[in-house]
């Protein structure tokens, strides 16, 4: 008879091998016959036809929310933290920081939220908002944002979504182009509106979201414009006193004109129908495991981003709860949280979150820095636990499963998971490629799968999604059930759908989630949207991908990011940046290549904590972080780290930046150097740092 100890080791090992091999072998995407331009096309392995709605008789977002509110009436839906106090702290160098003392979450049930939606819709009519007029929402993510969105849907009013970080020029362009008549905003957005009030041609009404009285800007705006200015609460009150029947939309009606934050030039407005967004919402429902009314979702991404808008509609559809937070109050250590006060995640204890890679990178660096600072036994335990988990996932060691898994959770990972509340069971990552290192790190430390997705505003975030049991990294999964994915040849870049061992080419997405096109921009719409002979609508992404044998997609390049160097070598800027940003010294990076030279250079936003810790250990004297970034030793250390990361990623020599410039200040949406989704605005950064870039090429 087998020794019980050996049995305890052998049985988990056998099951791990069986299920790991099964999951690695099985098809997740399968070839499909489609029309349009020739290429290699696949669809989700579980569906023979594209999913348009997951609910019988439901064809719009308005119908979906109404039905869910009926089913989950008493269940809590929208949660907002109580603001106890707001204080200003001054640090040693004289800079002041706003700190918030936040209390518990206060909740609206589905019934209460739906009642507020109906009243807001009626209040719009009482304010004079007419049929066919557009509403813009220009505010940070919060409960009133969601209520306003659903209220507009009940009046079949198209909502124009605008990032709250958008600059004045782009803001004017978006509002004037769509001829918005009613504008909904937050307190801080009122100040921006005050600056541009005379440049807006069609705005008649402003509704402000505020919790503590009438902002002083209201009277100034009223004196200097012809706008009527009303509080959100007053609109709801008007609707309660004067109810109006709903004017419900149909599937083909435009629900949202979503302005992309624009990595180049002015933003473009993407026209999304109710059917477009519903297709993505329905598809995600079939992919995320065991979604249900016990799930709690922490909302902190911009609702003006399709990833967040789709995610919140998914949660509302299943009877889950949405607790609102912000990136600056997310954890106990976040910059706007008063010391001793709990962050949003600790208070809410969510089970599901959506995040962009930049946020997950910060979590990873934060954990790693804390571990390094503690040092000693704590660091040794963490490293051992991490390596054992990594070996288990990679299949080379199975001791990290079973009892040992429980032990490491208790000793090491339990404390890390507490950073995000301790109950996270699924993370949805989108908006940009997630590095393999960060994906694996978060997966191990938080103990939850990361569903990395690929999609665009133009496809309502629908495209691909990695399944919960797919432990691979660096890929973005198989097609969502609402989409066909096709790779078409791009001979100029050397990518062909006939390539071996994997088909490669430009990624083209087709399905009911593909949007109508760009508002008032037929030329650009015609360039990237095509309708085939079968009536299928396709969007040409400009991204380059390859299909793995199991039907999962990997993003490997982007057409616009390729630069030909002096001696004929092609450099993919985005690919190199993704490889180098894993350096612990890097907060952000932009690679630059000049066709008249044979080498690349880079602008590097340095990670202040990591670089200062290194400098202190090396006894390097510096007055402040700006001074440190100019030190030759610091530049040499960071450059060495980039070379090391490049070698790990197997970059060619000509792809590695020969020279770098360290920058001390972060690139933020407010600075205009990155989008609201934290993607770099390459052209704007080039102009901003033109002098620094030119110095790289001086002899």
UniProtKB/TrEMBL annotation:
Signal peptide interval: none
Catalysis: reaction(s): a long-chain fatty acid + ATP + CoA = a long-chain fatty acyl-CoA + AMP + diphosphate
Pfam families: AMP-binding
Presence of the UniProt keyword Membrane in the record: no
UniProt keyword Transmembrane, yes or no: no
Domain AMP-dependent synthetase/ligase: 98-519
Protein name: AMP-dependent synthetase/ligase domain-containing protein
Protein source organism: Protea cynaroides
Lineage: Eukaryota, Viridiplantae, Streptophyta, Embryophyta, Tracheophyta
């Amino acid at each position: 008879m087998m020794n019980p100890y050996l049995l305890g080791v052998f049985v988990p090992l056998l099951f791990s091998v069986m299920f790991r091999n099964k999951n690695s072998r099985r098809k997740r995407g399968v070839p499909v016959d489609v029309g349009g331009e020739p290429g290699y096309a696949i669809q989700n392995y579980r569906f023979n036809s594209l999913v348009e709605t997951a609910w019988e008789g439901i064809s719009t977002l308005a119908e979906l929310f109404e039905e869910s509110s009926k089913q989950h009436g008493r269940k809590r839906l929208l949660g907002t933290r109580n603001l106890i106090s707001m204080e200003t702290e001054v640090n040693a160098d004289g800079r002041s920081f706003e700190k918030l003392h936040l209390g518990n979450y206060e909740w609206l049930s589905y019934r209460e939220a739906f009642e507020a939606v109906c009243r807001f819709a009626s209040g719009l009519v009482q304010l004079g908002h007419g049929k066919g007029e557009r509403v813009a929402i220009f505010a940070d993510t919060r409960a009133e944002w969601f209520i306003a969105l659903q209220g507009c849907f009940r009046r079949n009013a198209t909502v124009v979504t605008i990032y709250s970080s958008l600059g004045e020029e782009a803001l004017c362009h978006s509002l004037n182009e769509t001829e918005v008549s009613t504008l909904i905003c937050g307190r801080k957005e009122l100040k921006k509106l005050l600056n541009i009030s005379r440049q807006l041609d069609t705005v008649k009404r402003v509704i402000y979201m505020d919790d503590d009285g009438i902002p002083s800007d209201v009277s100034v705006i009223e004196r200097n414009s012809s706008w009527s200015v009303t509080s959100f609460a007053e609109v709801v009150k008007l609707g309660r006193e004067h109810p109006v029947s709903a004017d419900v939309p149909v599937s083909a009606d435009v629900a949202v004109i979503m302005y992309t934050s624009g990595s180049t030039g002015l933003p473009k407005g993407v026209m999304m129908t109710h059917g477009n967004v519903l297709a993505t919402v329905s598809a995600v429902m079939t992919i995320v495991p065991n979604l249900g009314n016990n799930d709690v979702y922490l909302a902190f991404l911009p609702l003006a981003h399709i990833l967040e808008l789709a995610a919140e509609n998914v949660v509302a559809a299943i009877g889950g709860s949405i607790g609102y937070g912000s990136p600056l109050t997310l954890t106990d250590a976040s910059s706007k949280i008063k010391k001793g006060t709990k962050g949003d995640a600790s208070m809410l204890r969510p089970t599901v979150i959506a995040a962009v890679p930049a946020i997950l990178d910060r979590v990873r660096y934060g954990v790693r820095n804390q571990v390094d600072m503690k040092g000693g036994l704590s660091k040794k335990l963490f490293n051992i636990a991490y390596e054992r988990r990594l070996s288990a996932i990679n299949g080379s060691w199975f001791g990290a499963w079973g009892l040992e898994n429980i032990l490491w959770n208790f000793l090491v990972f339990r404390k890390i998971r507490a950073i995000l509340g301790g109950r996270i069971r699924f993370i949805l990552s989108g908006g940009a490629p997630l590095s393999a290192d960060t994906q694996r790190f978060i997966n191990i430390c938080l103990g939850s799968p990361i569903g990395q997705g690929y999609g665009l505003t133009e496809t309502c975030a629908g495209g691909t999604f990695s399944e919960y049991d797919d432990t691979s990294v660096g890929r973005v999964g198989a097609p969502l059930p609402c989409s066909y994915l096709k790779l078409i040849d791009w001979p100029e870049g050397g990518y062909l759908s006939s390539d071996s061992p994997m088909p490669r080419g430009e990624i083209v997405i087709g399905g009911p989630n593909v949007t109508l096109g760009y508002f008032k921009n037929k030329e650009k719409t015609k360039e990237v949207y095509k309708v085939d002979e079968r009536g299928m609508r396709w969007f040409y992404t400009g991204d380059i991908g390859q299909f793995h044998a199991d039907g999962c997609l990997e993003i490997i390049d982007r057409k616009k990011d390729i630069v030909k160097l002096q001696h004929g070598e092609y450099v993919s800027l985005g690919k190199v940046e993704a490889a180098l940003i894993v350096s612990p010294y890097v907060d952000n990076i932009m690679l630059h290549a000049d066709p008249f030279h044979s080498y690349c250079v880079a602008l590097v936003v340095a990670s202040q904590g990591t670089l200062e810790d290194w400098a202190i250990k090396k006894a390097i004297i510096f007055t402040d972080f700006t001074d440190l970034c100019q030190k030759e030793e610091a530049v040499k250390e960071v450059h060495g780290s980039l070379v090391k990361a490049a070698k790990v990623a197997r970059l060619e020599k000509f792809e590695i930046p020969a020279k770098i410039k360290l920058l001390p200040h972060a690139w933020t949406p407010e600075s205009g150097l990155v989008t609201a989704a934290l993607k770099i605005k390459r052209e704007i950064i080039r102009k901003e740092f033109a002098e620094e870039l030119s110095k790289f090429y001086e002899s």
